[in-house]
Structures are given as C-alpha cells and as structure tokens.
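Try this one yourself first.
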C-alpha cells in the first residue's frame, strides 16, 4: 500500500472533504555506493565543519537563513510548524481550469488522495464534477515544509494531486529553434502528411503502462547477477575506447520513403497478426477491398529522370547477364579441358 504523506482535507469555498495524501510513485534507481578501489572500503558522506575541518554531530546542526553575507537567522522545526499550521493540513483549491490547458512542463510529482472518514460524499461529488467538466482544481499545499502548486485531477475512480512547478520554475522556450507552423514552408507535402497520419493510425494501441519496462535497469541487474554468480564481486570495469568518428556528414533522409516503408511494416505486422487469428484487415482508406489510389503522376522532369534511370537499370541488367554468360562459357571450357587430361 502507498505510504501516507499526511492527513488533512480538501477545501474550496465552504466545502471541506477529509482526505489522506498517499505517495503515487516509487523510485527504482539502482543504489551504487562509493568505494575505495584500493581496499574496497566504503566511502561515506561526512558532515564537516568547514572552518575546523572536523566532523560534527547532527545534534549540533541547525538551519540558518543567510539574509546578508555572514549573517544568519536561525530557524527551528517549531518555527516551520508555526509558519502556517493550516497550510500544512489542507489542499486549498484556488480555482478550476480546463485540464487540457495545463502544459506537461508544469507537472512534477503525483500523489493519491484517499477519502477520509465522513468524506465519502464530498469525495464522490468532487470526483464526478471534475470528470464531467473536464476541469482540474488548482491548489496550494504544504508538503515536507515546502509549499507547492498542485493540480487536483481524476484518474479512474481516484482523485490525484499532482505537484506542479511554479511559473518562475519553468523556463520559457524563447531561444529554442522549432520549424515554422506552415508545413509548406518547411517542405512537408500533403502526401507526406497523409502517410504520417496513416502510420500513426497503424501504430495506435490501447494504453497499457505495464508493457513498458526499464530495460536498461534490467540489463544492468543481469550483468551484476552474472558477476555475483562468477564470483567477480570486486571486479572493476575498465573504461572502453570511444569509437572513432566516421568522418561522414549527416545523411539526408527521404522522409516520404521512410514513411512509406514504416507504413508497409506496420501493415505487414497487423496482417500477420490478423491472419493468425483468422481475422480480416480493414483497409485504411476507401470502401470494400479496393486498394489505395495510386500516387499522383510525377512531373515531366521527374518522368525523364525516371526513364533515364530505367534505361540505365536495363543496360546494367543486360551487362550483368552477358557477364554471367561469359563466366558460364569459361567454366564449360575449363571443364572439358580437365576431362581430356583425365582421359
């Protein structure tokens, strides 16, 4: 069960809904310790007095705010509790906004909100109103001694409190280069757009988060377990040589060709899957079993180029056939000569 962060209430207007805030995420990072390579002794983090260079016990450490260089105001745990007792007990909703208007850049940490005693009716009411309206409650909440901006959202039957970043914590993308919104200006044609949309349709699937795994972490664990099994518990991996640069410039990718190939692969995968189930694959466009309309005819210049390419291909094929015929003749002659010698 997710751990309890605090117990309090959701408030908006005169509504008061008792809730329990529970963690909605866990970190699966691998924990690596610092070691002394000479004797594999652990290297710890020490609290050091920067003036004397000596370790200091935690009971002598206090929190201080430097209001000017070298001058501090000391703060105790009780000072933090007295700052705003009510703020540490409530999710205070300031207003409601369209949930779709919130940029993903603002979301940070999710929490579950569990209904408290005698809070079932208010919980269910708020959940249904948010679901029907498509809105999110924007609130302020204090967690671990720090005030946060938060969004109150609905996920299935659960109310979620998603901690957000304040506006001054989100960098504006003012100096970031992005292509113009005019597709023609960046060379995107209607056919490419159609193929891209078709590829997205082919690759669309239900959202099943359990199918996505941290394969990098799993691979690291596999290496660690293999070394444990081999008894290599103190082996250090030497730094590998960086691959030499190829010296080649950036490749120019034919976007249309890449899209067409991707769509063909996606359709092929679906046909195999449907064939295994005895089902039928529905056409992407048009009705019945009619194939897609052929692409528009190329321009005259393109037709000339295509014709020239076809002629060159034909000449190459003819040359290749002649070469094969000559090789076969030489092999036949060599075979007859060897037969005479054996006779």
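Now uncover the answer:
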């Amino acid at each position: 069960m997710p751990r309890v962060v605090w117990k309090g209430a959701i408030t908006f207007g005169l509504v008061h809904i008792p809730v329990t805030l529970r963690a909605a995420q866990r970190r699966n990072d691998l924990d690596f310790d610092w070691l002394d390579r000479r004797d594999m002794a652990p290297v710890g983090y020490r609290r050091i007095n920067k003036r004397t260079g000596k370790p200091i016990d935690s009971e002598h450490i206090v929190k201080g705010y430097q209001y000017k260089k070298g001058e501090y105001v000391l703060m105790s745990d009780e000072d933090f509790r007295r700052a705003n007792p009510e703020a540490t007990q409530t999710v205070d909703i300031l207003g409601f906004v369209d949930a779709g208007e919130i940029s993903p850049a603002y979301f940070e940490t999710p929490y579950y909100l569990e209904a408290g005693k005698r809070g079932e009716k208010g919980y269910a009411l708020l959940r249904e109103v948010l679901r029907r309206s498509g809105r999110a409650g924007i609130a302020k909440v204090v967690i671990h001694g720090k005030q946060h901006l938060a969004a109150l959202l609905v996920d299935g039957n659960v109310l979620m409190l998603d901690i957000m970043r304040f506006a001054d914590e989100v960098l504006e993308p003012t100096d970031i280069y992005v292509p113009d919104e005019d597709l023609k200006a960046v060379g995107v044609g209607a056919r490419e757009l159609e193929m891209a949309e078709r590829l997205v349709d082919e690759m669309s699937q239900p959202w099943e988060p359990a199918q996505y795994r941290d394969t990098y972490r799993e691979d690291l664990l596999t290496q660690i377990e293999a070394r444990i099994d081999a008894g290599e518990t103190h082996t250090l991996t030497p730094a590998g040589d960086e691959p030499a640069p190829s010296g080649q410039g950036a490749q120019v990718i034919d976007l249309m060709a890449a899209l067409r190939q991707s769509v063909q692969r996606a359709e092929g995968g679906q046909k195999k899957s449907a064939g295994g189930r005895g089902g039928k694959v529905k056409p992407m466009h048009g009705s019945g079993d009619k194939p897609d309309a052929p692409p528009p005819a190329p321009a005259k210049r393109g037709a000339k180029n295509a014709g020239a390419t076809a002629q060159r291909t034909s000449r190459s094929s003819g040359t290749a056939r002649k070469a094969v015929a000559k090789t076969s003749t030489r092999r036949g002659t060599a075979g007859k000569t060897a037969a005479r010698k054996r006779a």
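Discussion: The helical segments are 77-83, 120-133, 190-203, 215-229, 255-277, 300-342. The mean pLDDT is 75.
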